[in-house]
Amino acid sequence: MAIEVKIPTILRTYTKGEKAVSATGGSLAAVIDDLDTNYAGLKGRLITEDGSLHRFVNVYVDDEDVRFTGSLDTPVADGATVTILPAVAGGSRDRA
Amino acid sequence: MLRLDSEIHDAIVAHARRDHPDEACGIVAGPAGSDRPLRFVPMLNAARSPTFYEFDSADLLALYRELEANEEDPVIVYHSHTATEAYPSRTDIAYASEPGAHYVLVSTRDPDSAEFRSFRIVDGAVTEEPVEVVPAP
Which domains are delineated in chain B? Predict the structure, then answer.
């Protein structure tokens, strides 16, 4: 059984417009690696150069924000749903 | 150009005033592809800060589920600046990731008049657009 990954509008250029794609992998890191083999470049939008999850995206495994479940080490079971959403944030102080 | 009803315009300004001196944030949803902002959705600023805003991550997931179920887009993404002008900061630009949305900024620095401006933010490029407020139906 595959894992369903929901893709936000801004990243659908990588998935030929698909809103959801399937992937495999036992952890979030493995799922993202698998995504990148089929949709080249996607990994670079999710993971920073130092190998951590980008702060501009929120990733959920079965509705749980992975920041609270081990980030990239979060286990992803067969049949799970991974949802990627852009963070909606900003503000007058320069933090960029 | 952003066209919106006076009722929605006034609701955004009232939310910004209410949360002042913290930044207020939210969206206005509309039917997918319509570019019509119809459903006002104020959000909590999880950062509760005068200089930063962020949708709570559980609220964000629930919101996008709701938009998907209703076949809606976030037509407007709004927030307030409480001590500076209503213009996107570097942080706003870095985070902006709805290229189809109108990014509305309201400044509440002047207690008597609110600045209300709208921008497109696409790939880091900011373009201001005219705002037309029409009487509510």
Answer: 2-134 (3.40.140.10)
pLDDT, tens digit (0-9, with 9 covering 90-100), for A23-56: 999 999 999 999 999 999 999 999 999 999 999 9
Q: Which two tokens stand for residue A77?
A: 């079971």
CA distance B127 to B87: 10
Chain B residues near any Cβ of chain A (below 8 Å) = 23, 25, 27, 43, 47, 49-55, 57-58, 60-61, 64, 77, 79, 81-84, 88-100
Whether the ipTM is more than 0.85: the answer is yes
Note whether B78 and B37 are within 8 A (CB): no
Residue in A67, A83, A91 closest to B23 by CB: A91
Domains of chain A, each with CATH number or no CATH? 3-86 (3.10.20.30)
Closest CA to B78 of B96, B63, B59, B60: B96
